[in-house]
Design brief:
By secondary structure, this protein is α+β, with helices and mostly antiparallel strands. Helices cover about 40% and strands about 20% of the residues. A five-stranded antiparallel sheet has the order 2-1-5-4-3. Strand 1 and strand 2 form a beta hairpin. It is globular and about 65 Å long. This is PAS domain-containing protein.
């Protein structure tokens, strides 16, 4: 006879120390306490809502979805760090990882985790949505050419945004900008 304890997976999910949710077509089906607290909502407020409520702007929500699809199609999972928005309007850096439950549906049923990394990486300058997107890709180590291809801009336009970021963060070099974006003060 097996005397192994019964594992209560629902309690584990609800009380996990990292924000978690189950989604389908970018709509939150269920979320845990940590996710609700991180974004300043209750679980009941978030369940049934689009991920749009977690983004600074509609444009960032749409562009992130467009960026996720080819990566999910290729790998079945996605991970990045991006600026998100709490219920009170505060912007913060968040590490997001997701896994598709159906390989044929990259944005279909999935499991997502969210980790607030704002202590390591504070949002210290007023950034436009496009600057936030480019900043997140620079932090991933991508070049201006790679970013331009990925988000369908010219390399020159990406360079222009990078230069604005460098001014806003008082960074003399691209390397210094990336260090400041990840919260390291040189």
């Amino acid at each position: 006879m097996n005397n192994a304890p019964v594992i209560d997976y629902e309690s584990i999910f609800l009380h996990a120390p990292v924000g978690m949710c189950i989604s389908e077509n970018r709509v939150i089906q269920s979320c845990n306490e940590a996710l609700a607290a991180m974004f300043g909502h209750t679980r009941a407020q978030l369940e049934g809502l689009s991920f749009l409520v977690l983004y600074p702007t509609m444009d960032e929500f749409l562009r992130t979805g467009d960026r996720i699809i080819p990566i999910m199609n290729a790998k079945g999972r996605y991970s990045d760090e991006r600026i998100m928005r709490r219920a009170n309007g505060e912007l913060f850096w968040c590490h997001v990882t997701g896994h598709s439950m159906k390989a044929s549906e990259p944005l279909g049923p999935g499991i997502w985790t969210f980790e607030d990394v704002s202590e390591k990486r504070p949002v210290t300058a007023e950034l436009t949505p496009r600057e936030r997107e480019i900043a997140a890709l620079l932090v991933e180590g991508k070049t201006s050419k790679t970013i331009a291809r990925q988000i369908d801009l010219s390399p020159r336009t990406v360079e222009m945004h990078r230069a604005k970021l460098m001014r806003k963060f008082s960074a003399a070099t691209s390397s210094e900008l990336v260090h400041k974006l990840v919260g390291l003060q040189l």
